[in-house]
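Exercise: predict the fold of this chain.
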Amino acid sequence: MWLDSHCHINDEAYNDDRNEVLQRMVNNGVSKAMIVSLNEEEYIFSKTIKYDGISLKNSVGIYPGDVDKYDEETLNRIISLFKEDECSAVGEIGLDYHWGKENRDRQLYYFERQLIEARKLDKPVIIHSRDAAKDTFDLLKKYPGKGVMHCYAGSKELAREYVKFGYYISFSGVITFKNAKEPLEVIRSIPLDKILIETDCPYLTPVPYRGKRNEPSYVIYTGKKVAEVLDISEEMLSKELNRNYDELFGV
């Protein structure tokens, strides 16, 4: 019924109970998930994660906060992974000026290089953007294609522009927080066929588990909130979300 369009169950936070986490996905009707890798080691490990009853896909990309760890050789190694059939998307890639104001030029270079390669391969991109709205927008406009704005936290006006580009807008457990007013306005302002949900686990845990480690089974609370905001049934929403996910990631 449900899906998690962006999770990190390859993270060491799950080393002690990963199978139990996967079983809770099955128990809660979360049957699909995109495992996002931030480096080559995570990606190699992610491809080994399998579980009956769950369709797991993989993506890999250079996270903007990690660009200083790379040089041209290691960048090209990551780019070579994009060509693998097991790599269903490129990401998460993008810009983060909240933590990395001093290396903007380096972030822009790595982001652009990865966008170019994703477009050559016609693969969707998973975009991270924090305090970098204009530069993110400008580069995605320069290299049109398909993708998703991961854990969207921008304005409804900008979200509409991304939808015009053909992008999906993904919402995390943040929308269940009491002060989450703007994201709910964004949900109301964009077409249902451009909405996705995610956990970004182990981070951004939704209510009622806020403050604890997040996991894909908790995506149901984000889904329930979206259904409530749009005043539609959970069944209708889940069907639309599955259609969106399959269309974006080529199922």
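Check your answer against the key: Residues 1 and 50 are 19 Å apart (CA to CA).
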